[in-house]
């Protein structure tokens, strides 16, 4: 099974060879999810580490009053679930498929052996964890210092940049819903919808069904 895990070209394992994995007893399997199917819930006691092979996943927290907060979206190649694997605790977030997806599930013991015996994997893992901490720090500062419209603008700029189309005429065909945007920036759907309408009337964006076109990136970022 060790050879097959390298066939997926996972960034965390890039540069490793079958010889590097020899003797580690790497155990993994593939899981297939339908759209909106849950991979695991928050407080789940599973401790394996997962890699998104295809599709799109969201990490979600549900508050006690039922509000949904989207912490992150995963792209193919991304890994997640390492916190529970490292400390033996329960899941802090649920992971839900936004569309039909395929996930490689690496058993916890295999992951821990990789981290222990492969410095390259350990260094990449630490770098990824630091990047997530920095991102969460920025998000917390945004909640304190920015209005909802400013957070919507920043979200759009970031999303266009991630899709490689932060330029006039750039189009995102599968834009998150207003509810998803609201859950991502700590706002409610009605205020997000109002902010998007204001940006559209100002000529900064053009919207359609699950589609958004960037008309004036300079003004949007400003």
Automatic annotation (TrEMBL):
Residues 146-218 form the HTH crp-type domain. PROSITE patterns: CNMP_BINDING_3, HTH_CRP_2. Pfam families: cNMP_binding, HTH_Crp_2. Residues 12-132 form the Cyclic nucleotide-binding domain. Signal peptide: none annotated. InterPro entries: cNMP-bd_dom (IPR000595), Env_Response_Regulators (IPR050397), HTH_CRP (IPR012318). This is Crp/Fnr family transcriptional regulator. It comes from Paracoccus marinaquae.
């Amino acid at each position: 099974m060790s050879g097959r895990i390298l066939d997926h070209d996972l960034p965390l394992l890039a540069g490793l060879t079958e010889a590097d994995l020899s003797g580690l007893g790497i155990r993994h399997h593939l899981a297939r999810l339908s759209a909106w199917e849950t991979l695991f819930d928050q407080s789940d006691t599973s401790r394996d580490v997962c890699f998104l092979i295809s599709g799109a996943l969201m990490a979600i927290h549900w508050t006690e009053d039922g509000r949904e907060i989207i912490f992150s979206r995963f792209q193919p190649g991304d890994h997640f679930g390492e916190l529970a694997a490292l400390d033996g605790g329960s899941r802090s977030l649920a992971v839900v498929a936004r569309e039909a997806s395929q996930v490689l599930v690496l058993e916890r013991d295999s992951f821990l052996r990789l981290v222990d015996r492969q410095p390259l994997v350990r260094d990449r893992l630490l770098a990824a964890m630091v990047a997530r901490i920095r991102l969460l720090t920025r998000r917390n500062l945004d909640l304190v210092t920015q209005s909802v419209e400013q957070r919507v603008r920043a979200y759009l700029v970031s999303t266009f940049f991630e899709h490689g189309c932060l330029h006039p005429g750039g189009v995102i065909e599968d834009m998150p819903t207003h509810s998803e945007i609201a859950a991502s920036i700590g706002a409610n759907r009605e205020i997000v919808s109002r902010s998007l309408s204001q940006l559209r009337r100002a000529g900064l964006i053009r919207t359609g069904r699950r589609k958004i076109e960037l008309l004036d990136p300079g003004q949007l970022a400003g």
